[in-house]
Structure of Arsenite methyltransferase:
Amino acid sequence: MKREDDIRANVRDNYAKVALKLNSTQGCCTPASSCCNPNDNQNISIEEISLKMGYTKEELESIPDGANMGLSCGNPQTIADLKPGEIVVDLGSGGGFDCFLAAPKVGREGQVIGIDMTPEMISKARCSAEKPGFENVEFRLGEIEHMPVADHTADIIISNCVINLSPNKQQVFKEAFRILKTGGRLAISDVVLTATLPESYLSDMNLYSGCISGAISIAEYEVLLKDAGFTNISIEPKDDSKELIREWEPNYDLENYIVSAIILAVK
């Protein structure tokens, strides 16, 4: 248990720093004057990261300033097939990026709930949600292993490069199954292992917070989803993501070990 708590504390601290770094002194909803990606790689901008992950310029221009923090490893919007009136839950919602993109797709009759365990992220996202047009979006502080959502609430769960960060993924999927309605869908982007990580990578807490050390294989992902009760499971690795993954930590050969994937499942 201590190991799990240590991991959560490290991840929470890391993303609190990201949220605070991207806030300016002029207002919580205003991005810093010169933002880079979370790993301080000056060679690629947040917009470039998002475009490479499959978002469009129109999508990026439609959300509140500062909501896109460059923390994606894919675009769950492309696989979610959101419909008007649906209730969406975003696991590890961060600054609210995918929540704000989902909001117009489910419309006024729908609802988008973002869950994040980092108070600084929740504050940032709530501030952005005050902008007109996002009245159907709310953000709740909580761990994705213990979601602050009632049973059988969600039509669909989305998530973007977050579940790898959990030290108890089986509990995440059990909770996801609990809050979904019968027939509800899971549509997430995450990183998966393509080869066994070196021991030195596994023991590096910074690499865990950087979405590396906590990644699991496709086979293990599928087993965890099945054990939670999900069916119609599809896990598709995206080999074209390796170029961007190489940029995450240029001093490591990460592209030899992990790849972004899109994961679909049904309750």
About this structure: The domain at 2-266 is CATH 3.40.50.150 (Rossmann fold). The two ends are 29 Å apart (CA to CA). The first strand starts at residue 23 and ends at 24. The longest helix spans residues 2-21.
